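**User:** Everyone, produce a chain:

**Assistant:**
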Amino acid sequence: MGEPDEVDQALPYRGTDMSDYGIPLDDLKELMEVRGTEGIAEIEQKYGSVTEICKRLRTSPTVGLENNPKEFELRRQVYGSNIIPPKPPKTFLQLVWEALQDTTLIILEIAAIISLGLSFYKPSKDIQDKLGGGDESEEKAGWIEGVAILVSVAVVVFVTAFNDWSKERKFRGLQNKIEGEHKFAVIRSGEVIQIPVGEIVVGDVCQVKYGDLLPADGLVVQSNDLKVDESSLTGESDHVKKGDSRDLHLLSGTHVMEGSGKMVVTAVGLSSQSGIIFALLGATAAEKPAGGKGDRKKAKSIEDTNPVPKAAAPLDPIGASPSKADGRLPPLQNAPQPPAMELKEVSLRDEPDGKVDSPTAPSSPGEEVDGAVKQSKSTSFPRKEKSVLQTKLTKLAVQIGYAGFAVSVLTVIILIISFCVNTFAIQGLPWNNYYIQFFVKFFIIGVTVLVVAVPEGLPLAVTIALAYSVKKMMKDNNLVRHLDACETMGNATAICSDKTGTLTTNRMTVMQIFVGEKHYKSVSDCASHIQPKVMDLLVDGIAINSGYTSRLLPPDDDREGGLAKQVGNKTECSLLGLVVGLNKDYQAVRDEWPEERLYKVYTFNSSRKSMSTVVQKEDGSFRLYSKGASEIMLRKCTKILDVNGDEKDFSHHNRDALIKKVIEPMASEALRTICMAYRDFDPAEGEPDWESENLIVSNLTAIAITGIEDPVRDEVPAAIKKCQRAGITVRMVTGDNVNTARAIAIKCGILTPDEEFIILDGKEFNRRIRNEKGMIEQARIDKLWPKLRVLARSSPTDKHTLVKGIIDSTISENREVVAVTGDGTNDGPALKKADVGFAMGIAGTDVAKEASDIILTDDNFTSIVKAVLWGRNVYDSISKFLQFQLTVNVVAVIVAFLGACIDNDSPLKAVQMLWVNLIMDSFASLALATEMPTEELLLRKPYGRTKPLISRTMCKNILGHAVYQLIIIFTILFAGDIIYDIDSGRGAALHAAPSQHFTIVFNTFVMMQIFNEINARKIHNQRNVFSGLFTNPIFCSIVVGTLIAQVFIVEFGSVAFSTTHLTVDQWGWCVFLGMGELLWGQVLAFIPTKKLPRSLTIGGGEPEVDMVSIADIDEPDAIESMTELRRGQILWIRGLSRIQTQIRVVNTWRSTLYEGLDKTRRDTSIHDFMSTPETHSIDFMNANGGDTTDGGLSGLSSANNRSSRSLHSYETTI
């Protein structure tokens, strides 16, 4: 390996504008296009070795780049930055234009323009007299109504556009903030540091490990059993082994599935392979990738050198990374993306109902799975699936829209018939073009009825409530990647939680040790009793056979309580702490055995659940160090070190006795047990076949067994008690053995004395849920999960099976909504299957975070409880708005309809109804969707999947308040002139002056809505509607602002709003009748909800899956011009419109570039895999025999897949 002085002496190759670097940018790009053995041959032919490439790039494989900012800036100028410029956001005027595309608004605009034009037409005096025309001054002001409608439409459009613009800006700002906090480990000046991925430059030496998503293209410098999933680029799901003799190329956006190593960065940003694809797709700003004209040629070269088509761009752990394995084209790893919005998608299953059959056995015993999921042969497009609440809301909005349309049409028909009968039949008048104004007026009334009836505020309310909650949840350590996860979490009925780091502190310490045939209750007691030979084996085994990224650092001030700071895998850190406690120096051992000297490493993964490292000693012989779950490791041991450090035989009886006397007592004290072992290979037998892992890791000699304590977080028992009180069942799914899991579950409060429960390990769980043929049966799962509280020694596939079984079960009344926590790469299937997947922000891998819906930035279970609180608040906020809006809808539509039938005119004029529409849509959605959550939300049971959207209590309130308002409105309408001693406004002429009568009707109607908005704050029959009122300044501001605006409209609106001045007494009556809503609400609270019929609900039952094929909306313009979608819905889709375009382009590109490829090859694309994640993950489980629990790892369930990482992967979804 080249040292810094060697690098400095390297003679750089001077290409055009390449400054002091020996390899031009185009050469590096071409270098990454040929991979595998051909790529290695090309490297050797052109440069000799990767070390020589490092010299030319003026970097060192061991020391990295010098920490020199000027040097980094120069490299960015030469090779480019590790970012992809996003397309600029839409301007405010563009959003205004989009808002103007709404169908109902367009109709209203056309009608208003026609009305405006006809207002200048003057009929003869005789016709005016026969029709009872208004005075001349009012006729001259006839144009004002048309202008007022246009102005009102403009206000609605600008409010909508401003909402879209402000939300888009906030999402971009949040996205950029999170991207800046995402970091990756690089070596600079010999130190391993974490830097933002956007700062990575060509020549950087990066440390890669299990679970990472690679931020740039590079070449392998050092590999420890490194395997990479390149399916995001190649469409091939098989893991690719990386090393000197296999493949040296690492590509951005691909997943490190096993092992660790180092790579030297050779291409970043638009120059990387994935960046080139993005540039071809037009998924970036109008900047061309570095390399200019050669890019098309490069793309052709990709085709020539890689027979596998580029099915998708790489996944993005920062920006818009596709969770739920949705098959969309994700953006580049480190690219700042457009507003962080994503539509969660669901795959198309082979079965019509979306279910997946139980898995079948692999085709052959030797079939290699390597944790990869198999490819599906389905070539259907992925589809997006709306959340439970969203599906119910959409269905309700459509139904209301149909009803409103019918009423509006009926209103227009009745008005026209009534006018025609009265004018032509009764009065016998001849036709005159002047009459067109009446028909236009009738049409405008009908359209405004439709505008009021259609609840277009629903999407806005959902968006505001979710966006507001996302912002607040960040302060509660919940980083939401999919917006709909907020409301879904509010309906959660079950939480399947990991133990380590979530329920426990993840601050691990070795408390007990069994070594030299003695069980020491304290580590300090054994230091002087361990034989030197045993001590050396113990210290070397721990120091060498662990990730070198795991280390102990001095404490940060007093935050660690004076204890060493643990960096990296916490289990390994506890073992390193044992070494320090034995007064030994693990770093000295690592200095003697640097990573480059490690001969072979079997890194931890979920299937082997252990870690082993081979070193070659000075005499040429080999020694293997291994550690793992004690019961598992002891099965592989045939010898054990005695008190003198000598090897003695270790039989099955010895093992059983050791488990009973040592391991079970440790586990009963909630200690995780880890066994260390070693094996020396006889040099006379030659070098073993290192690929035969099962033979290598056998015939071991046990060194010691440690008991590791991971204390339960102080706040967890109280949090679990809150969940249980809220009707949420908490289950613990862990890799620890049953005894340890039981002890922890009791401490947490998951197991309570008064409850009947089941505790199973993975092996027994699989035995109970499978039939004689080894197939999983839902009926068998249904017998287990209601009482199952702890699943120990479980594999990720066990977790997936449990989650899927609970979600698919129909034995509970409202269907279960399941949340799951996960941190490892192979937790992905369970996180994707769950209704809400929580990834660990600190200990979680990039892959787990990508598969999740919410990231816990503090890895704390209490943050999940806060997510439940916010989720329920979101659901309730939307229900509050729904209760308020439907009341307004019912009253406004009935008043307009009956007024038209009885009086040949609507008491509420077009402009007035637009104002009411603005109140109940934009303003009310903002007011009611920003309520803060309260602890009382956790005192009720979860809604579940089948709970009606509009409950009996809400129906009671909607109908009750509607009755009150209708009685008041019609009383004023037909008797108001007598009650208030004023002129009647009924039967007024076309251009008659505004009357006090109809002004009082309008003003009273608005006052009732304002005070009913206060009633709508409570939806569970609470009496105190003022509780917490002043904790929401937005609500108070909107109510006060609406009141002030109403005063101005009434007093100064004149002809534009069809209002006139009211006296103080008349104002007093309007306000009094409005306040009567509060008293009427108390009366309604006396009506017992339980005695109301259950049929008085809306939106109950299992929601229908409402899916839209991506293929049908793959054009951004098509998406944004879908007239049936309101602006809020378009906003939800806009964030993904670019990706939808990419899907279309990529499929077209593939069909042309790879037309000659074998069909079988094309059937195994990434789209196929991503479209059926459950199928593949279950196939993987079955390929492992469905019984992977024997390979479980106590105390090492998190090994190598935990790392200190920053927040990333922000995405929002509706």
